[in-house]
Amino acid sequence: MTAADLHFSPFDPEQTKDPYPIWDRLRGECPVYKSSMGSDEWMVDDAEDAGAVYVVTKHEDVAYILEHPDKFSSGEDKNGPGIPPEVLEELAKGLPLSTTLYNTDPPEHTRMRTLVGQGLSQQRVAENAPLTRAAAEELAAGLTGGSAELLEQYVRPLANRALLDFLGVPRDEQDQVLQWNGLWEMLFIPGLPVEDQRQAAAQIVEYQRWYERAVEDRRASPRQDMLTRLALAEADAGDKLSMAEIAWCTMELISAGAANTVDGLANVLLVLLSEPKRWEAVLADRDLLAGAVEEGLRLEGPTQWLPRTAAGDIELSGTRIPKGAMVAVTYQAANRDPEAFPSPESYDPQRPGLARHVAFGRGAHYCVGAGWSRMAIRTGIEVLLDTIPDARLPEDFEPEFYLPIPVLRCVTSLPVSWPTTG
Ligand code: HEM
User: Fold this and answer.
1) Domain CATH number, residue 311
2) Which of 54, 139, 301, 312 shows the greatest Cβ crowding within 10 Å of its Cβ?
3) pLDDT tens-place string over residues 269-302
4) Which atom of ligand 1 is nearest to the CA of 258?
5) Could you read off the pLDDT of 137-179 as tens digits, one per residue?
6) CA–CA dist 380, 155 (Å, integer)
């Protein structure tokens, strides 16, 4: 199906900075929209529809795709042609390449997920909560003088610090690990200059040495941290993660976890602070907070969309998607589908059916860090409610958004002020 006057590309930042109006049109007029304006770099050359991307916006279709990994693959080629040979040659000096959770399908995915998931269980998250609270309180103590820009002074350092504390990265090494991890992400951004990627790969080999030392250290003297859980994780018949799997999966956990938690906490704070009565309601009744976080993520979840590859020819909402085509699964369009969430633009932390939101995905690839992330976002907000209960955004505040990477969307700033005594 096509709509002649609709022109949308999920790769166009001008359209995706404010995606909701066009997603509403797509969902209503053309729920599986073939965009010929994909990104050449992201395309797999031999697909019948190379250069096209099928944008799926209805909640029902998004849920179907996420629940059928056999029909919509997360396999390695979904991001395009992959890492260039010169870069692979540099990486070969370090640990062997390994697949990760994000780019595998069952059954390989199931095995890895069982092992990695052990470190992110409810119990591990609960054990980590006091450490996350301590990080939040340390940062909140710096919010003095009656005004602050919460994104840079509180949200970003909190999400990074709390996640790396949870993993077990010592504080004095956290900046280095974040810098290395940024270089690792460069490997997966198609179209970057190959020489820049090759230089990044040389640093990533250094980074892998860091993992080898950290894992050996945890095996010799286990600690209460995620790296220890990954080092010791064991499934049936003694199956364990290899050193390369631990390194690649941890790089992915940092990459997926830190940015999403920064953007998720910032966007939920925006939802709460943009209407003082929402903030006052959670201030008065903390039991509303869990629902407020879910509703905030439904309205402004940071992950806009992610790719899948059609494993065979398939029809969805009346449109044929050919084998090998790239499919953009738009979580945030699904979260504003009026058929799934009546009056989708309104805020209701006690909304019936709120648990159906897909801000953390669904099915086999459901966010492995969702439990930790929820705890971190709730803790971050609770500490602000305790420290600056009267925080307000400017009355005429008009939020702007930026895209840290093409699939993530985050408010640009959160300038708050509050009355001070004396
Ligand atoms: C508000 C915060 C977060 C949001 C909105 C979010 C969103 C998502 C989404 C939508 C997916 C599904 C991907 C798919 O369908 O292919 C996902 C998967 C994933 N997330 Fe998160 N995430 C968040 C926090 C985290 C954290 C804190 C971690 C790590 C500790 C993490 C690690 C991952 C990983 C490794 C996957 C891949 C899981 C798999 O394929 O089995 N995420 N996340």
Assistant:
1) 1.10.630.10
2) 301
3) 999 999 999 999 999 999 999 999 999 999 999 9
4) 27
5) 999 999 999 999 999 999 999 999 999 999 999 999 999 999 9
6) 8
